[in-house]
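Dear Dr. H.,

I hope your travels went smoothly. While you were away I took the liberty of generating a structure for the chain from your last submission, since the lab meeting agenda had it listed for discussion. I wanted you to have the full record in hand beforehand rather than looking at slides cold. The sequence, exactly as received, is reproduced here:
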Amino acid sequence: MLFSLVIIQALYPYVLTSLGETSYLVKFLLEGPVIVNIIYNNSNILIDSNTTLTLSGKITLKALPTSLGYVVLIDGRKVSNTSLNINGPTTINITAIPSYVNLSVYVFGKGVVTVQLSNGSSYSISENKTFTVKNYTFVYINAPFNQNVIFNHNIESNFYVVLLNGSTSINVTFLPNKNISPQSKTQLNLTGIALGIIALAFYLFFRRKSSSN
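The corresponding predicted structure, in token form, is as follows:
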């Protein structure tokens, strides 16, 4: 009987109630230390693990982290309260992530790296350093355009933008300058500056967007 019910739910992810209303299977996928209160038809349903419910119409979610130092994301958005209208089979992801994480920058070779955080702080370093940074924010890292730089062993560039989602390590390797003509070096520097401005524009855009959420 249970096996037959599973097959029916897989083929028809909705249920007709006795009043003729159509309800749908809603999967709640929880990750991390989080508890969720689902308000539906003036009732409260409390869950703390992956759960599938049969729902329809408007539902309200109120999610809270169960450990200090965590924030909640609902479907990737940094919100803890939200209302949804269920009009079909739905999967809702609710995740608790650390509020702050470690950003470790490892510098190889001779050079200075500038690390710009989303709160506006800027640091110039020439040796390994670990920062405590707000999670789920953008970080912009750049090096002088007259030097040859590789990020994370395989990205040859003078700038790097990363969205932190957990503790992160970034390797910055300074290579000996190649023998190129002054004219080519000027062209490369101008190109690098232009690309750096574009990367910085993206960083500022996403920084403003993430801070507004």
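Two observations you may find useful: Residues 1-11, 183-193 have pLDDT under 50 and may be disordered. The first helix runs from residue 2 to 11.

With kind regards,
E. W.
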